[in-house]
């Protein structure tokens, strides 16, 4: 089964007037990781798709959705997948790619057949999916967590000691515009992406995981001088517009997957906001 919904873009002027419910309705994605379903949210920010596939009692086939107006999902798109569950595999045009916990897979446009499988129904794979429009075809590439390009940032003294695992990114995999990676916070650290930044040339989606039971993450968004917040639970995602900061603080350490698409593939393309200037 495949389910999808659409989200239209919101201007920063409009978002200033949103109450908590409207803010969550517009930006929070809280229906991911449904068993035996493919679930997608189609955002009009850079036509980005966020979704999941959890095969338990059956394999799941990637099918097109109506907003794409295509005969198959990857006709004019590329896709990135990171497994956040038990061992599984993704079959692309008959070739099988085994994905363990936190392994990633990039699939280029033009691939018609994509099938998601779990190795054990009692501990199913949980495939987190991001997709963006693509202008050409690049090869399918698996990137394990150990193969990621690792950046060690922050410090314990500022509660943001973290490892950024660049996985589907130019220095590791050639893509059209999709970029994905995973940031893991060290025990005792709670802040991600601090100092905060914006990048007007691309949008982003954050997916939070490894949040302990009875804990949560407060995700900050909005213009630097007009911030808002959304409380996040495990396996929820949030859309970050180009004009918005995207940062968070948890009641425990946690992990998040970041995905981006837009005009610039330069990971360092960002406008940093001074911590003391945030409002």
Keywords:
Jelly Rolls, 43% strand, 7-stranded antiparallel sheet, mainly beta, 7-stranded mixed sheet, 24 strands, 279 residues
Compact summary:
By secondary structure, this protein is mostly beta strands. It has helices at 12-15, 20-27, and strands at 2-7, 28-29, 38-43, 49-53, 60-61, 77-83, 88-92, 95-99, 104-107, 114-118, 127-133, 141-143, 149-153, 162-168, 179-185, 191-192, 197-198, 202-209, 217-223, 226-232, 236-240, 247-250, 255-262, 271-272. Helices cover 4% and strands 43% of the residues.
Description of the structure:
The chain is mainly beta. It has one domain: Sandwich (Jelly Rolls). The chain contains 2 helices and 24 strands. The protein has a 7-stranded mixed beta sheet with strand order 1-3-4-11-6-9-12, with no helix packed on it. The N and C termini lie far apart (43 Å). Its cofactor is Zn(2+). Belongs to the KduI family. Pfam families: KduI. Catalyzes the isomerization of 5-dehydro-4-deoxy-D-glucuronate to 3-deoxy-D-glycero-2,5-hexodiulosonate.
Helices and strands in order:
Blueprint: E1 2-7, H1 12-15, H2 20-27, E2 28-29, E3 38-43, E4 49-53, E5 60-61, E6 77-83, E7 88-92, E8 95-99, E9 104-107, E10 114-118, E11 127-133, E12 141-143, E13 149-153, E14 162-168, E15 179-185, E16 191-192, E17 197-198, E18 202-209, E19 217-223, E20 226-232, E21 236-240, E22 247-250, E23 255-262, E24 271-272
Parallel strand pairs: 1-3
Antiparallel strand pairs: 2-21, 3-4, 4-11, 5-10, 6-9, 6-11, 7-8, 7-10, 9-12, 13-14, 14-15, 15-23, 16-22, 17-24, 18-21, 18-23, 19-20, 19-22
């Amino acid at each position: 089964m495949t389910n999808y919904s659409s989200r239209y873009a919101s201007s920063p002027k409009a978002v200033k007037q949103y109450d908590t419910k409207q803010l969550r309705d517009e930006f929070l994605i809280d229906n991911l990781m449904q068993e035996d379903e493919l679930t997608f949210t189609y955002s009009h920010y850079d036509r980005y798709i966020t979704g999941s596939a959890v095969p338990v009692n059956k394999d799941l086939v990637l099918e097109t959705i109506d907003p794409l107006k295509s005969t198959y999902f990857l006709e004019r798109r590329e896709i990135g997948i990171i497994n956040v569950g038990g061992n599984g595999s993704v079959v692309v045009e008959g070739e099988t790619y085994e994905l363990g916990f936190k392994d990633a897979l990039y699939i280029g446009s033009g691939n018609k057949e994509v099938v998601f499988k779990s190795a054990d129904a009692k501990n199913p794979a949980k495939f987190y999916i991001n997709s963006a429009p693509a202008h050409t075809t690049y090869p399918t590439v698996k990137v394990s967590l150990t193969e990621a390009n690792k950046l060690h940032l922050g410090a314990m003294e500022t509660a943001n000691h973290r490892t950024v695992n660049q996985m589907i990114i130019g220095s590791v995999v050639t893509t059209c515009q999709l970029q994905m990676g995973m940031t893991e916070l060290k025990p005792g650290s709670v802040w991600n992406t601090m100092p905060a930044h914006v990048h007007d040339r691309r949008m982003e989606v954050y997916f939070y995981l490894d949040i302990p039971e009875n804990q949560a993450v407060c995700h900050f968004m909005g213009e630097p001088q007009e911030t808002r917040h959304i409380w996040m639970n495990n396996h929820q995602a949030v859309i970050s517009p180009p004009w918005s900061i995207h940062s968070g603080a948890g009641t425990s350490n946690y992990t998040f997957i970041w995905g981006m698409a837009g005009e610039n593939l330069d990971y360092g393309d960002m406008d940093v906001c001074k911590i003391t200037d945030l409002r």
